[in-house]
Every structure is written in C-alpha cells, then in structure tokens.
Design goal:
It catalyses: N(6)-dimethylallyladenosine(37) in tRNA + (sulfur carrier)-SH + AH2 + 2 S-adenosyl-L-methionine = 2-methylsulfanyl-N(6)-dimethylallyladenosine(37) in tRNA + (sulfur carrier)-H + 5'-deoxyadenosine + L-methionine + A + S-adenosyl-L-homocysteine + 2 H(+). By secondary structure, this protein is of the alpha/beta class. It contains 15 helices and 22 strands. Helix 10 packs parallel to helix 11 and helix 14 packs parallel to helix 15. The longest helix has 24 residues. The protein binds 5'-deoxyadenosine (5AD) and iron/sulfur cluster (SF4).
C-alpha cells in the first residue's frame, strides 16, 4: 500500500480496550491491521521518495515540559531508527531522559528476529505495567519489528492493554500524529502499515555520539530466506538515491565524524531497484572513497549479491575498511538450499577466495544458524569444516528460532532442542578457538585505533576499535578521545586486545 492509498483509507484509530473482547474485529474495521500476508507482496509499484517531512504547527510544543525514553532492542537498523525517533521527539519539544522513572513517554523499539528477543519485550511490558498504574498519564508505546506482526499486536491487545500506542517500522514519520492521537483518546492507538515501503528523506536525527555514525543506504529485504521475518517486517528492498547518501556522508565528515557504517538488511542489493540508472554498492563505495572521512564500513552483506566490482573497489583501500561481515548461515549446501540462501558452499568459498585474493589482509566475520529443521550431524559438521577453512575472525551464532508466518516455521523438525544446544556449544568453542588464535597474531603489532572513550570497566583506560573492529584497551591521555592513534598490542585476549600508545597521541589517519 502506498501513501496515497493509505490516505484514502482510514488508518489511525483507537480501540476501546475496556469494553470490547472480540479482538478480531479490530483488524477488519477499526485500524489498519499488520499482516504478514500483505507484507509478503512485492508489486511493481514505484517506491515513493518523500522530502517533505515537517512538524505541523498543531504539534509544535507538544513535548514542552515532557521527557521521552526509548529502549532499543536488536540490530543497528533499530538503533538508527531510535536516533530518528529521538530527533522527532526533540523537534516536538520533548527532552530526553535516561530513566523510565521520570519519562512521560516510553517507547520500546523492538526486534522480532528470534523468539527470545520477543520474550524480553513482553517481559518488559509486564514490568512497566506497575509504572503505568502509578502514573496513568504516562504514554507507553511499542514500535519496531514486533509491531509488524499480527500475532504480537493481538497479544498486546489481549494481555497488555496498558499499552497506549503500537506503531510499525513504516510509520515512524507519523510519530507526532500517533502521540497526538494517544494523548487525545487515552485509548490504544495502533498504526501499522503492511506496505512495501517508501523512502522518507528529511527526517530529523539525533546521533548517539560524535565519532561514529550510521547512514542508511537502503531499507527492506526481498531475499525471503525461509527462516527470516525481516522481509515481512521491513518491507521491500528500496534504495536511497546516491546523491542523498553522498551528501549525508559529506555532511558528517564536515561535522568531524570519523567513521561511517552504511546500513541495510542486504546492502549488496543496493541500487537494484533503480530503474533510471545502473548503480550498485561498488559505485557508491567508489564515490564515498573520495570523501575525506577516515573510515567507511557497511553491513550486512549477502553473499549472493556480492559482486566483483565491489571487491575491486574495496581493494583500493584508503577509507574503505577491509573487514567484511558476510553471513554464511550454514556450511551445508543442502541446508542452504532449504534456507533459500541462493548460494551453495562452493560458491561461498569461491567468494571468500576472491575477497582474500584482492585483499590479502581482509578479515571476515559471519552469522551462523544451528539446528535448522532436520539439520543432520553431517550437515552441522560441514558448518564446522567451513568455519575452519575460512578462519573467520568471529561469528554471531544462533539456534534456529521458528518465526510465525515464515516458510521454515511450517517445516517438520526432528531435531531435539538438547541436540541443537550441544551443537551451538561445539560451534562456539570452535569460534573461540579460532578467534583466540587470530587475536594472538596481533601481539607485538601496531594497529590504528579510533578512540571512543573510557573503558567501561576502568575509567583510567581508554577504549577504541581497530579497522577490523577489534576492541583495544590502552592507557593514554583523554585528549586522544575521538582521534585515530597508533597502539602497540601487548596482550591478546579472546575478544579484546590490550595495548600501549606508540608515540604521543598524534592523529594518524
Ligand atoms: N532463527 C535464528 N536466527 C535467525 N537469524 C535470522 N532469523 C533467524 C531465526 N529465525 C539470524 C541470521 C541473521 C542474523 C541477523 O540473525 O543468522 O544473519
Ligand atoms: Fe533475513 Fe535473508 Fe533478508 Fe538477511 S537476507 S534480512 S537473513 S531474509
């Protein structure tokens, strides 16, 4: 559904949660229901670009004397959405707060990727119930990926009627209207569009720091891996125009940011949706390469769309970092087929070979799912052997979690949970073993560290990340914060490195 169709239909509405028990009717008549079925549609409809976001005069000053608190779950995309929502709150006159206790509005920006992510949010909603009882004028909202799921919205209606607002990932720019409606009606406001998605350019943002920044380059995902809920919750693949991205990165460089991470669920599909230009991630990186900003990363890659042009551009080095997060998910071609990953073991290994040939020092990290329905011991061992062969620097590892509405959730599964847990442990020990070995290789070497601040555990120690995203702790004057400095590694741990500054903290870009 596009913006026009939405305007023509009735979208925001409140439900009388107190007097009604037949929840199903809300989905038909009262508000725009989230729907996994609709979310799956991928039409030929053009992506609409909007550049006209503003705070309408009726909402100005809405937040005066009020504070907002946003709790973020899940990936960097969510973190960045939180920065946008915080920007909208500030534009409305709200102040940020670090605690739910003095917040007038609390938002939970949720993640739907695995069941335990959802359980955390439901648990938190339970805790917040007492706060809401004490202060009935507090507004409590649920947004992000979980809101896009029909079953979640139903459960909130039934079990958590103290929630005031539920809005989806396509509705963030409507936050002022949603808040206004929630204040006015004091009843649950639900606005979730099951749409393919537009691109809204000029939303305000408050970035979390002044050293590193996230920049969206595309939204949504069309890959429909059989286990994954993201294509349903985030809509279809749609790319921001290159000139908008380039301008945003230039602007961040001018403001003194040192590192940019380009974000997208499947960044390698960047530009595939343009019908007026032929332009991909390689072209974009080539342009960003010329901008005077020390570090540019991107995440997340899909092996299927990772093309030779991108490898060629990345090999130019400079501000394009040679750390690539390349989720493999499984080392077994049979499992990859069932996952609909659209590559097999050999093709993945061939891609790794090409990357290493072009960038001999490149470091690779990955995501792996164990215990996909019916995964055999042999298939799992293929994952272990692929891991050994590639020698990833590290990996995020997960037990498969069925997500309602996805094809894999309908598959019969004959693997007991104990077996899945045991496989995860075996995989994790391999991940640790190889990570420790790779970290050891840093001892005695000098690395460039972008210093982010004091270490969490010791304020006398500074911490920052290397080009390959390794956390380094070392002693140096606070004036080093925000700079890139040379650090000699004296001791390697499994996940972090201890170092000492090589020279006075001179910036080394
Ligand atoms: N179960 C377990 N892990 C999942 N991921 C995505 N969907 C699921 C699921 N249903 C993992 C994938 C992905 C990462 C972000 O989360 O490994 O790359
Ligand atoms: Fe999910 Fe696959 Fe899309 Fe990644 S590429 S977001 S795993 S569907």
């Amino acid at each position: 559904m596009n913006e026009k169709q939405r305007m023509e239909s009735k979208q925001v509405n409140s439900s009388d949660k107190k007097s009604e028990k037949d929840f199903s009717k809300y989905f038909q008549a009262v508000y725009m229901p989230p729907s996994l079925k609709d979310a799956k549609k991928r039409g030929k409809e053009e992506v609409k670009y909007h550049n006209d976001f503003n705070i309408s005069p009726e909402f100005q000053g809405m937040g005066n004397g009020r504070k907002f608190y946003i709790r973020t779950y899940g990936c960097q995309m969510n973190e960045h959405d939180t920065e946008v929502m915080a920007g909208i709150f500030l534009a409305l006159g709200y102040e940020p707060t670090e605690s739910v206790d003095d917040a007038n509005v609390i938002l939970l920006n949720t993640c739907a990727i695995r069941e335990n992510a959802e359980n955390k949010v439901f648990g938190e909603l339970g805790h917040l119930k007492s706060l809401k009882k004490e202060r009935p004028d507090l507004l409590l909202g649920v947004c992000g990926c979980m809101s896009q799921e029909e079953s979640v919205v139903n459960r909130i209606l039934k079990v958590h009627p103290h929630v005031d607002m539920v809005f989806g990932t396509h509705n963030i720019h409507r936050l002022p209207n949603i808040l206004e409606e929630a204040y006015r009606s004091k009843e649950m406001v639900i606005e979730v569009w099951s749409k393919e998605g537009d691109v809204i350019e000029n939303l305000p943002k408050v970035r979390k720091g002044s050293i590193k920044a996230w920049v969206n380059i595309m939204y949504g995902c069309d890959k429909f891996c059989t286990y994954c809920i993201v294509p349903y919750t985030r809509g279809k693949e749609r790319s921001r125009r290159p000139e908008e991205i380039i301008q945003e990165v230039r602007h961040l460089a001018a403001q003194g940011y040192k590192e940019i991470t380009l974000l997208g669920q499947n960044v390698n599909a960047y530009g595939k949706d343009f019908d007026d230009i032929t332009y991909g991630l390689g072209d974009l990186m080539d342009e960003l390469h010329k901008i005077d900003i020390p570090r540019i990363r991107f995440t997340t890659s899909h092996p299927r769309d990772f093309d030779d042009h991108l490898i060629e551009v990345l090999a130019k080095g400079g501000n394009l970092l040679d750390h690539i997060h390349l989720p493999v998910q499984s080392g077994s071609s049979e499992v990859l087929k069932l996952m609909a990953r659209k590559y097999d073991r050999e093709r993945y290994l061939e891609l790794v070979r090409k990357i290493k040939e072009a960038m001999p020092n490149a470091s690779l990290t990955t995501d792996i799912i164990v215990g996909f329905p019916n995964e055999t011991e042999e298939q799992f061992e293929e994952t272990l052997s692929l891991y050994r062969e590639v020698e990833f620097d590290s990996a995020y590892t997960f037990i498969y979690s069925p997500r309602e509405g996805t094809p894999a959730a309908k598959m019969q599964d004959n693997i007991p949970m104990e077996v899945k847990k045991e496989r995860l442990q075996r995989l994790n020990s391999l991940v640790n073993e190889i990570s420790a070995k790779k970290m050891k290789e840093y001892e005695g070497k000098v690395v460039k560290v972008l210093v982010e601040g004091e270490s969490k555990n010791n304020p006398d120690v500074l911490a920052g990340y290397t080009e390959k995203n390794k956390l380094v702790n070392f002693k140096a004057p606070k004036s080093a914060i925000g700079k890139i400095v040379n650090v000699k590694i004296v001791k390697a741990k499994t996940w972090t490195l201890d170092g000492e500054t090589v020279e006075e903290t001179v910036e080394v870009n």
